[in-house]
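note to self — DONT lose this again. spent like an hour looking for the file last time. sequence + predicted structure for the chain T wanted, 193 res
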Amino acid sequence: MMPVVASLAWLLQVVANTDLGYRLTLPDGFGPFPAGRSQRDVVDCWTEVVAAAPSGALILCVQRMRGILTRDRLKPEDAPALAQLRTFQWKGFDLDGIRSDSAEGGRPVVILATQVPLRREAIQLIIAGPRDQAPRAEAIMASTLGSLEGETNWLTSTERAGRLGNIVGWGVGIAIGVILIRMWRSRQRSRAA
């Protein structure tokens, strides 16, 4: 009976959005946070059911981007004031992100955000909470990205190399074909003369 309960608990922690094409595993101890969905384009939001620290709970949200992402990297001037550029890993890709340290209601908070290049539409993962929980927020961002599944519109370096190889192969094949046709025509003209 215990394996069934463990499997059910695991299934309850997996969330999916078929419209945007992603699935992820919620961090342990996180549950629904409906109030977070009141923010523009936030499609789902969760918070720690029991805060891991007296300073408060962490919040994890998914926000739709209403477009796709290119491979262009963020520059320091692209970042909001008082935000630091960060790099997060997802499926072998370096994702640009930010870390912002600010205050809400006089309490210091940390906000981590990164955009994920899903094929249908990019999403933004946001983790926010008390600043003294920043290391946990970083770890939760990494584990959430590690569990995030979805098709991407970005090609891996292997896929890019394969496409380049195909293009070069076709180019060489066409060039050889043109040379052979010219040689054949030249021989036909020589025989006719």
